[in-house]
Specification:
Strand content: 15-25%
Order of helices and strands: EEHEHEHEHEHEHEHHHEHHHEE
Number of strands: 11
CATH superfamily: Metal-dependent hydrolases
Bound molecules: (4S)-2,6-dioxohexahydropyrimidine-4-carboxylic acid, zinc ion
Number of helices: 12
CATH architecture: Alpha-Beta Barrel
Helix content: 25-40%
CATH topology: TIM Barrel
Largest sheet: 8 strands, parallel
Distance between the termini: 31 Å
Radius of gyration: 19 Å
């Protein structure tokens, strides 16, 4: 046994799945992601969703304007697929370098997905164009059929839809996003390297007992919902295995407090502020710290066909107490909007001690 390291330097990582939102929330949450991650795949589920090239360019500009001084960060934009999006629009945005990938939300599967896709077979012309371009399809893999138990929605989506979709489009690069089940792990492991998956910090740390521990914890409600312990173990094994088909995607999804703490609370966990520390803690528990760099900084860019980042991040073993909520001051935008501190999102690991701290980013 070697001694536990006190410092860990990694190639600068990327976040292959994040919700940055817009307006005052964007300004409040972006610094957390941009400080640590060199690039991030930005989800398009705004209101209205990002379905046009000009919208994506304008959104990218708002992200770049919201960046703190001196921070180097590249947002990678995605297009939100709908039933009537034309292949020509998808192609144009990709060839112009605006879109890195397209996001498939089955209609009504999650937050702001009402405009999502209702018929995957009818999406064939768009998917064929993406296949020809080498443009990745990012999938929220859950069926929305109310007859399917919520804990089975991911496994049923793979069986009923994903296998057939990939048979129709065998050269399409697909990322099954935020996987939560052993079935997803097995399917991705057997179908790589053209199929990959992102894994979030919260699905690595939580099982479904956590949602009900001592009361109903709406802060642990996300979609897909966290599953039973056997599934969490399968995710931990996959993330720490070194298999390049599994890489980092936080699915950090901030909501104002009132949206979470309500009789019908929103799905989403805001983890961006301590995401890398969260993964490091988990990898260390598994004796797999030497595999964190591949998961966080290498396998994602290789799948996307992008260069690895040049810079580095250093984590030090130094306990930090995670605050309960994102702390201000929150900037007032020119239109007068700001994030009311009572509405600041709750932090994943809030109130806990984490053994690692990011101390340097270059
Ligand atoms: O928990 C989630 N929150 N899952 C998603 O798929 C969407 C996200 C959000 O946008 O809030
Ligand atoms: Zn998401």
């Amino acid at each position: 046994m070697t001694d536990a390291p006190s410092r860990l330097t990694l190639r600068r990582p990327d976040d292959w799945h994040v919700h940055l939102r817009d307006g005052a929330m964007l300004h409040a949450v972006l610094p957390a992601t941009a400080r640590v991650f060199g690039r991030a795949i930005v989800m398009p589920n705004l209101k209205p969703p990002i379905t046009r090239v000009d919208q994506a360019i304008a959104y990218r500009d708002r992200i770049l304007e919201a960046l703190p001084e001196g921070v180097q960060f590249t947002p990678l934009m995605t297009v939100y697929l709908t039933d009537d999006l034309s292949p020509a629009v998808v192609e144009k945005g990709f060839l112009e370098g605006v879109w890195t990938a397209a996001k498939l939300y089955p209609a009504n599967a999650t937050t702001n997905s009402a405009a999502g896709v209702t018929d995957l077979v009818a999406l064939a012309p768009v998917l064929a164009a993406m296949e020809a371009l080498g443009m990745p399809l990012l999938v929220h893999g859950e069926v929305t059929d109310p007859d399917v138990d919520i804990f089975d929605r991911e496994a049923v989506f793979i069986e009923r839809h994903l296998i057939a979709l990939r048979e129709r489009h065998p050269r399409l690069k697909v990322v099954l996003e935020h996987i939560t089940t052993a079935q997803a792990v097995d399917y991705v492991a057997s179908e790589g390297p053209i199929l990959a998956a992102t894994i979030t910090p919260h699905h690595l740390h939580l099982n479904r007992n956590a949602v009900f521990a001592g009361g109903l914890r709406s802060d642990f409600y996300c979609l897909p919902v966290v599953k039973r312990e056997t599934h969490r173990r399968a995710l931990v094994k996959a993330a720490t295995s070194g298999d390049p088909s599994f890489f980092l995607g936080t699915d950090s999804a901030p909501h104002p407090r009132a949206g979470k703490e309500s009789a019908c609370g929103c799905a989403g966990i805001f983890n961006a502020l301590h995401a890398l520390e969260s993964y490091a803690t988990l990898f260390e528990k598994e004796g797999a710290l030497d595999r964190l760099e591949a998961f966080a900084s290498e396998s994602g860019p290789r799948f996307y066909g992008l260069p690895l980042n040049e810079g580095s991040v250093t984590l030090e073993r130094s306990h930090q107490q995670v605050p309960e909520r994102l702390e201000g001051p929150f900037k007032a935008l020119p239109d007068g909007s700001t994030l009311d501190s009572h509405q600041a999102p709750v932090l994943f690991h809030g109130g806990e001690l984490l053994p690692w701290r990011v101390t340097e980013v270059s």
